[in-house]
Amino acid sequence: MFDLNLAVQTISRFGFFCQDAQPASLPSKWTGWPFNSGYGGDWQTSLATLVFSALILGVICVFLRLLYGPRGIWRDKEMDREAAEARRKAHAALDEDYRAGRLDEALYKLKKRAIDQ
Q1: What residue numbers bound the domain in which 85 lies?
Q2: For residue 23, what is the enclosing H or E element?
Q3: Phi, psi dihedral angles at 91 (to 5 degrees)
Q4: Contact indicator for 47, 63 with CB cutoff of 8 Å
Q5: Distance of CA 98 to the CA centre of its chain
Q6: Is 114 in the same domain as 101?
Q7: Whether the bond into 70 is cis, omega within 30 of 0
């Protein structure tokens, strides 16, 4: 027949229903990850922390570039206008130097390409 006492002992051995059962706490090198106190880790946790930090900074940089970079959503249009005006002035001065004979054709093309970039 069914022994209730044996069933209770078997269930309590697994710790599912027992109040004083403690979960197994094994030492882990990942307990303070990603920003632990610096003690007790090895090269793997240090490398993982470094990669995680670089990833976060990279996401922030890409986000700011999309918002404020060239053709960005929140970029001030005045900045683009000033850059275009400075480029026009630099092209005019370069063309004048080339027409006056102070620059040869190769140097002219090189400087023109540098201005356009």
Answers
A1: 76-117
A2: none
A3: -65, -40
A4: no
A5: 45
A6: yes
A7: no
